[in-house]
Amino acid sequence: MGQRWVDEETTGCDLGDARLNRRLGTILEAIGERPGKSLPTAFQDWTNTKAAYRFFANENVSEDKILEGHFAASALRIQATDGPILILHDTTEFSFKRSSPEKIGFTKISTGRKMKEGRHRQHTVCGLLMHASLAITPEGLPLGLTAAKFWSRNKFKGTTALKRKVNPTRVPIDQKESMRWLDNLRCSTELAGSPERCVHIGDRESDIFELFCLAQDLGTYFLVRSCVDRLAEDGGTTLSQVMAETHASGRHNIRFRDDRGQDQQAVLSVKHATMTVCPPIGKQKNHKSQNLNVIFAEEVNHPEDRPPIFWKLITNLPVTTHAEAVQKLDWYSRRWNIETFFKTLKTGCRIEDIHLTTADRLANCIALCCIVSWRISWLTILRRQFPTASPAAVLTNTERTLLDQSMPSNRQSAPHDMAFYMTAVARLGGYLDRSSDPPPGTTVLWRGFTRLADLVEGFHAADPSTSATCG
Fold it and tell me: What does the domain layout of the chain look like in residue ranges?
């Protein structure tokens, strides 16, 4: 995919050594050309593979420094767009099988099969967690990561007993893992540079009263899915009780895919109301009530073969009309983009197959793969939203020449624009390109780019003189 994009995503990085900075670009380019391949396959020889292992183990290298340049590039892309910026926040887990799992850490306790005595076998899962924030446009174009936090846990010892003694709602937020939501909101808002443009979107885990207060302090917006039936108005009622007495503002039709990947349609009855939302009882001394908008969208006459769709959203965005409520529902539906990003990271880059031995080395490698995963997601949506854009910014002359030759003769008359070349890449990855097929997704693109890298290498091996003239 060329050196230009690598330079754009690493220019803002400073690892304290010019050689490390150059090596960062070399590794990113190699992983970007062959996403999902093992490190030896990506680097093609022992010298570069060994250099990559040393890079990941270097004490001067960290995931924060690796992503510094990408964050700066994301900020530039945000500044180059107009209108609201949706910042999607979510957490994902990476699981690994290691003979010394304590070198990496643990993510959770997993329940296995039932033993003879009737109890289920339990074991701790070795792995890392990552809380990421992804900026997108309201139309879904990913602009890049704005924050990322990596961590693992020690052995889960006595946690169940501890929960019986301590009320989690009374533990200060800065002593809980939930603090990651506030940290990323603060970092992302600062990076974007325009708090009034940012809309921070999160799932049920982000239903944190401290997050509501922080957004108000920063002058930014949030849109989160409700997890708790919070106290409302004077504290004598709840969100659900207020919404039960609220009349529907109208209906909204949506299309989606179910767990089996089948297209589905649903009709939602939409309610919205402005109300005073009170802090939890244990936090009322430190936090004031917030005047927020609540949106309930419940499916009407849902089929019996699946549960009904029911979204409960809380936001500090203005919601005074049915159209504004529907807009917020559409924005929240964009949260799925970060799930697609995680899928690309895990399945496309095959993070969990990487055989690095410590948490720090894995985090460094994951940080690089995050940039690659963002780029694949960006190209996927770019092809859909800007099909007539010039491909010169994302593909080299050599790549375009090879893709020209890979397309069948009946497609050669089509304009050689972004849609043409991204379709050609997707065809290399198994996309059938039938008239009834939807636009190519991230899976066929990452497969296609891997094959394209092999074609480019073979092209240069057949005629070494082209390496200097067909960049």
Answer: 85-325
